[in-house]
Amino acid sequence: MLYDLHEMTLAPKILHFLHNLKLEVKLPPNIAVLDPFKGENAEVIDRTIQEFYVKFYNDRAPRRMIIGINPGRLGAGLTGIPFTDTKRLASDCDIQINEFSSHEPSSVFVYEVIRAFGGSEAFYKNFYITSACPLGFVEMKPNGKEVNHNYYDSKELQTAVTPFILSTLKEQIEWGMETDVAFCLGTGKNFKFLKVLNDEHQLFDKLIPLEHPRYVVQYRSKRMREYIDKYLEALAQ
Q1: 12, 42, 67, 74 — which has fewest CB within 10 A?
Q2: Domains in the chain and their CATH numbers?
């Protein structure tokens, strides 16, 4: 292991959290948990997240939280790191995964923002990217194909995982995260859910919604610079 659980820096807390995620709820039919830490690439992912979090979070500096939806099959569901694929790990974090390669569209925009902010070291020194639900979901289609499934895609699933979402957010906040402001990736259903949760439990003083990176890449790619500037202006708060 590259870390000691008795250390008080942020890195071992994050790693311990990721290694011990358990979602013990009844899921809707044809829905399964996407847990990269227990899949066929678990050993590679374990090595990768240790390298990433020790590199960028092995200190006691407080961060502000950026909260996505839940891991997807090509992003955190594959690498274990939110909005980060193998391409960006290599080019922007100097971390190599040789066992497989991935291209996650959302990570393209996120790392444009990170570069504009000053690079990975500067960005991760100030921010911690996580997900409302730190474990993802897949839906098995009749043809046998697995597709991403968000926690809010069915009321049954959202209700089932709400206690898990609340407890994991509280756990991460207790590491010493700043709570004056947090950022929500997604101005629709993710923000609506997190706003209700925040209004009830007062996790953050202010929750700022930002367009989801996937939306920007898929529907607003010609205006990407505009959205990068919007992110930078919001993050400057």
Answers
A1: 42
A2: 10-235 (3.40.470.10)
pLDDT in tens, 148-189: 999 999 999 999 999 999 999 999 999 999 999 999 999 999
**Nearest alpha carbon to residue 177 among 52, 5, 61:** 61
Residue with tokens 């891991």: 71
Q: Which residues of the chain have pLDDT under 50?
A: 1, 3, 5-6
Chain centroid to CA 212: 12
Q: Residue 137, Cβ neighbours under 10 Å: how many?
A: 26
Distances (CA, A) of 69 to 3, 5, 117, 212: 28, 28, 22, 9
Alpha carbon of 14 to those of 56, 120, 175: distances in Å? 11, 18, 9
- Residues making up the chain, counted from first to last: 237
